[in-house]
Every structure is written in structure tokens, then in C-alpha cells.
Amino acid sequence: MTPQHISDRLEIQDVLVRYCHAVDRKQWDILQTLFTDDATVDYSAFGGPKGPAGELPGYFIDVLANVRSTQHTISTSLIDLTEDHAVVRSAAQVMMISDAPNDTDHVLFVGLWYRDSLVKVADGWKLRERVQEYSWVHNVQSAHNG
């Protein structure tokens, strides 16, 4: 591995982690900087948008309206890298807490895979395409019934 290859891999991992923090902190302006202007997403596996990445802030604002807290994690990223393009598959888990009856917390968990395509542009690596793949959910049904 060359020093440039190592640097690129670290920068790509940083984009993936910044995405998680931007969503959890509801920093929609930062979220947008992680995508190219023509980026697309496919979040249909969980009922989300399929189209321009610019739709994500509105989608998250709606989905998180009744959620007190979220924590996104990403791990086991498999990065296939060329000079200016990368294909990445990463495991992700999302924990969400909302209010439940009787002043209790409702905690639900979602497991998914991200399939990403990133490109190297003048100011670093950016997501050009992000697809969510369904893996598992836990405690989601009671969230809708509670």
C-alpha cells in the first residue's frame, strides 16, 4: 500500500463517520457537504427516498420528529479503491429512543448495510451514491403500536 492509498482510505472512512455524526446531531448543512452535487441515494429499503441526496434532510427531519435521540454506528467497511473512485460496503446499526406510554423509553434498533460509491474531487472524497440494504430490525413494531 502506498502512502496515498492509506491516506485515501482514511479520508473515505472519515466521510462515512462524519455522515453518522451529522445525522445524529441533525447538522443538515454538514450532511450535504459529504455528497457530490449530483449524488443519489436509495433509502427505499426502509421507506425512505430514492433520488437526489438533497432530499435527505427533509426525510430525516420527518422521520426523527418523534425521536429523542439517535446513535448511528458504522463498521466493517470493505473499501475497493482506485485512484479517484471507491466502492464501499459497510455494516451499520442505528439505535433510536422515543417516548413510550407510562413515561418509559422505547428503544428500537435497525441493522443495515450501506453500499456506497465515492469519488475524489478537488476538496476530497465525497459520496456520489448511497444505497441502504435491509438487514434486520428489533423492537420496531411496538414503536408503531405504542
Automatic annotation (TrEMBL):
- Looking at the record, the residues that make up the SnoaL-like domain are 4-130
Domain of life where this protein originates = Bacteria
- Give the signal sequence positions: none
User: What's the protein name?
Assistant: SnoaL-like domain-containing protein
Q: Which organism is it from?
A: Oceanococcus atlanticus
